[in-house]
Every structure is written in C-alpha cells, then in structure tokens.
C-alpha cells in the first residue's frame, strides 16, 4: 500500500551519528526498528535470575512494562521479526495471572486503573494482531482484556461526579480522590476495542456510557482556538468541577483518539467524528511543531523535566494517531505527514551510545544526552509505524476478520477460564544453559507466527 503522499516524504536524514532511516524502504524501517527494539529490550530484566517476567528495573513502574510489550506486539506485527515474542508472551501471561486480571499481589497496593488498562492494551493488541497465544492454562489474550474490562466496569463510581472511574483502585491511596483521563479514557478505548473485536453490544453501550461521562466532564474542553483540549484529571472533592490543567500530556489526547477511532470504525456512526476531529486538531496544534511537523511533549520536553512516565507519552500518541489513520481512512492524509516527520526526527536523535540509543528531543539531531526505555519506545513507535505505508499490512482483526483469540464475556469474574491454547508454558529463565530449550520454543513460536510473518516475504 504505497500511498501518494509518501512521494513527498522528506528524504532520509543523513546525520553521521544517528540511525539511518529511509522512510520509503521496508528494509530500512525494519533495520532501524530492530536496532531500537534491541536496545530497549536490553534494559528488560524480567528474564534475569532473581527477577520476574514483566518487570523493568527501577525507576520504571510496572505499567511501563505493559506499555513496552504493547509496542513489542506492534513490533512483531510491523516487522514480522519474532525474536522477542517469547519474552512478550511470558511477561503478559505472568503478570496477567491465570485469571487474566492483571492484579498481581506485588502491584495491587498502588495499582491504578490506568496501570491495569495499559496491560490490557497489550493483550488487546495481541488479539488484534494475531499474536501467538498464551500458554496452556491461561485465558486467551481477548479474555485477559475482558477480565480487566469486567473489573473496571464494576468500579464505575456514580457516587461522585456523576460517574466515571477513579484513578487509583485502593481507597487508601491519595489518587483515589482523582478521576483522570488515562483511567477513564483507557476504559473507553478498551471497551471500544472489545466492541469492535467481539461485536458484542454490551461493549458499545459501555463505550457510549464512558464517552458521555468524559464529554460531559470538565476534562473535555472543546472549541478552543487550538481545537479540543483535554485536561489530565479532576478531583472528586469539588465533584470534578475543576479540571487539573497544570499538566498537559499528549497521551491523554492519544488515548481518546484511539478509542474514538475504534468505536467509529465499528459502529460507523458519524457522531463520533466531530469529537475525533476536535481532538485531532488539539493534538496537532498543541503537540506538533508547526513547520517541521515533529511531535514534542510540550508539557515537559522544552524544560528538560519529563518524568520517567512522561518520556513514554509520545509513543502512545503516535501509536493511536496511526491507528486512527488505519481505522478512519479519511484522516490518513492529515495524520501521516506528522508521523513521517516525527519518525525522521526520532531517528535523528538515536545517536547515543552504540549509535542506537535514542534521546528525546526530536526537533534536533544533536543527541540530548538521555537514554531510557521511554525514549526508546517512543522512537520505536514512530519509526516502525511507517511500515504501513510501504507494506500491505492488515488492519487490526476482529473475530469476523480472522481473529482467533477467543472471547469470554465472563472472564475474570468466575475465576480461571483457560483458553484452548496448546502453547506450552515458556521457561521462565532464558539463560545460556537453556539455549537448547529456548531454541525448541522458538521453533514452536515460529510455527505459530508463520501465518503472520512478513519478515521473510516483504520487500
Ligand atoms: C511477586 O514477587 C514475588 C517475590 O519476588 C515473586 O515470587 C512472584 O513471582 C512475583 N509475582 C509476579 C506476578 O511477578
Ligand atoms: C456532582 O456532579 C454530578 C454530575 O455533574 C451531578 O449530577 C451531581 O448532582 C453533583 N453533585 C453535587 C453534590 O453537586
Ligand atoms: C495536577 O497535575 C499535576 C501534573 O501532573 C500533578 O503534579 C498534580 O498533583 C495534579 N493535581 C492534583 C490535585 O491531582
Ligand atoms: C479543525 O481545524 C480545522 C482547521 O483549523 C477547522 O476547519 C475545523 O473546523 C476544526 N474541526 C474541529 C472539529 O474542531
Ligand atoms: C474500518 O477500518 C477498515 C480497515 O482500515 C477500513 O477498511 C474501513 O473503511 C473502516 N471503516 C470505516 C467506517 O471507516
Ligand atoms: C457480551 O458481553 C457481556 C459483558 O462481558 C457478557 O456479559 C455477555 O454475556 C456477552 N454476550 C454475548 C452474547 O457474548
Ligand atoms: C533477556 O532478554 C533480552 C531481550 O530479549 C536479551 O537481550 C537478554 O540477553 C536476556 N537476558 C538473559 C539473561 O537471557
């Protein structure tokens, strides 16, 4: 699918010390993505002796590992490279648990609805991109996503602010008094994706219910000169009448764009387009540089004070903008120039150690001296998405269009509902001594991915 506007894409940046990216070449995109992914995964400690699958070392929070593996599911989809599938399957299953709820006891103390939903985004992506299934005894990727949905639907809170979800799950946590976009928009997007994937009307109804709450809340600020603005959250103490606008975060926009794109694609109802275009306007006006079209996390990047979490946000904004281009095709011409320019900007920042570690300031090709998982996943998201323009990749599937990850509407609420997976459990430690075993497992995984593998055939 080579679309016309790729013709006027900027030519590859030829900065001496950066990842080279030829945006119209599948080989170049794969090579760049593979280099960036390798350095990101080198930080992963979940397969080390004494650690557990699904963990990153400090300072990374638990949710960020879920986000990282979401991008790795994407990585397999875009490039066809199965190198990290085993680690990804292992991490998602281990943290999801045999009931698929993503409420592991090591995390529940300070787990937020947004933390939990990011893992569900990873498993939902696995269902939509026909990722190899979890091991025997674990719910399907779809069922894990449904388990999270079911738990969060029970947490709907009509007692304050007319509904919505609180940020934190535990009443003793300070964030229990806060209702934020990451949690509420996250549930909205998850519901929309389950609606599209399963075709079950219950999820459409919940998408509507959550959207109506968001749209009616102080978090949603339409018709500003820049388009629609999205506040980060609001406190229940004032019955959510006062939006917290001190933090401006691009992922809040991205989460809603993703949700609106899925629900529009599924329902084909025009009513979803107006809020979608409003938020797209806000996103481009607020976060993308006017002339270069490169994304900037404006709340922190210009001041060099992005938090560890903040360094990941561009990755999601880009991810769901790309998704929007796929699922709402009339937005593609508007969106792609920003993605292409941002990918070039990102690659130009990947001139840290080994010429593959990426900084965060994509508006300059001088490495900014920072490295980390957030920088790496943001660059990965921007670079690998360009594969959509040079290869004919399928859109996220549904149960009607080739999805094989089984639906279970009662997942999580009735205990362990295993999938019919025939995939064996993957050995926890991948050490040199386990190489033979790992080789066999890789072969098994390869057999599962063969149908969806483009690595060998695309060029
Ligand atoms: C929680 O931590 C304990 C102790 O490190 C470990 O044995 C267990 O596997 C961890 N659970 C998960 C889901 O990582
Ligand atoms: C809180 O806000 C909700 C929704 O806007 C409204 O229905 C409710 O009456 C408000 N409660 C109070 C005590 O003001
Ligand atoms: C508002 O958002 C900022 C930036 O994220 C945060 O530091 C602050 O704690 C939030 N305020 C409240 C009342 O939650
Ligand atoms: C988005 O911006 C364009 C151009 O700036 C404007 O014409 C359009 O009305 C805006 N749409 C929405 C929904 O805000
Ligand atoms: C939904 O997405 C598919 C895949 O990109 C696309 O072909 C279809 O036109 C979209 N539906 C709508 C209503 O835009
Ligand atoms: C639809 O989803 C809901 C919520 O998960 C579930 O209770 C219901 O059984 C599902 N319906 C069908 C027909 O699968
Ligand atoms: C863990 O996985 C990463 C990424 O796949 C790899 O680079 C690293 O060598 C692995 N560590 C061990 C101890 O196997």
Automatic annotation (TrEMBL):
Its main location: membrane. GO terms for cellular component: endomembrane system. Keywords: Glycoprotein, Glycosidase, Hydrolase, Membrane, Signal, Transmembrane, Transmembrane helix. Its EC number is 3.2.1.101. It is found in: Endomembrane system. It is an enzyme of class 3 (hydrolase). It catalyses: Random hydrolysis of (1->6)-alpha-D-mannosidic linkages in unbranched (1->6)-mannans. The keyword Glycoprotein applies. Pfam families: Glyco_hydro_76. The chain crosses the membrane at residues 436-457. This is Mannan endo-1,6-alpha-mannosidase.
């Amino acid at each position: 699918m080579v679309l016309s506007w790729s013709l006027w894409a900027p030519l590859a940046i030829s900065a001496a010390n950066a990842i080279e990216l030829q945006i119209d070449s599948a080989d170049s995109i794969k090579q760049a993505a593979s280099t960036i992914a390798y350095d990101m995964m080198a930080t992963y400690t979940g397969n080390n002796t004494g650690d557990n699958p699904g963990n990153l070392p400090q300072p990374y929070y638990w949710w960020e590992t879920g986000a990282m593996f979401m991008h790795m599911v994407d990585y397999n989809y875009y490039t066809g490279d199965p190198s990290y599938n085993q680690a990804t399957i292992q991490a998602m299953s281990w943290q999801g648990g045999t009931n698929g709820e993503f409420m592991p006891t090591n995390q529940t103390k300070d787990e937020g609805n947004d933390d939990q939903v990011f893992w569900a985004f990873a498993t939902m992506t696995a269902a939509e991109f026909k990722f190899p299934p979890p091991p025997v005894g674990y719910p399907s990727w779809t069922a894990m996503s449904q388990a999270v949905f079911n738990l969060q639907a029970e947490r709907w809170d009509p007692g304050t602010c007319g509904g919505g979800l609180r940020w934190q799950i535990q009443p003793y946590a300070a964030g229990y008094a806060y209702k934020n976009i990451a949690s509420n928009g996250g549930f909205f997007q998850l519901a929309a994706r389950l609606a599209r994937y399963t075709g079950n009307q219950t999820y459409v109804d919940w998408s509507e219910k959550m959207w109506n709450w968001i749209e009616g809340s102080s978090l949603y600020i339409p018709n500003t000169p820049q388009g629609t603005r999205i506040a980060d959250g609001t406190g229940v103490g004032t019955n959510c009448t006062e939006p917290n606008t001190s933090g401006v975060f691009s992922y809040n926009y991205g989460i809603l764009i993703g949700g609106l794109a899925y629900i529009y694609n599924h329902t084909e109802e025009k009513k979803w387009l107006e809020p979608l275009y409003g938020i797209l306007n806000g996103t481009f006006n607020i976060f993308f540089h006017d002339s270069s079209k490169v994304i900037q996390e404006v709340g922190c990047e210009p001041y060099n004070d992005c938090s560890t979490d903040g360094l990941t946000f561009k990755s999601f904004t880009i991810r769901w903008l790309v998704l929007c281009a796929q699922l709402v095709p009339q937005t593609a011409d508007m969106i792609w120039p920003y993605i292409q320019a941002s990918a070039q900007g990102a690659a130009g920042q990947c001139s840290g150690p080994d010429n593959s570690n990426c900084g965060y300031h994509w508006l300059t090709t001088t490495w900014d001296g920072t490295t980390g998982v957030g920088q790496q996943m943001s660059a990965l998201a921007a670079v690998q998405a360009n594969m959509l323009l040079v290869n004919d990749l399928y859109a996220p599937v549904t149960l009607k269009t080739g999805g094989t990850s089984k639906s279970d509407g009662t997942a999580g609420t009735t205990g362990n509902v295993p999938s019919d997976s025939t995939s064996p459990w993957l050995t926890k430690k991948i050490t040199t001594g386990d190489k033979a075993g790992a080789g066999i497992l890789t072969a098994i995984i390869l057999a599962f991915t063969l149908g969806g593998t483009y690595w060998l055939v695309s060029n």
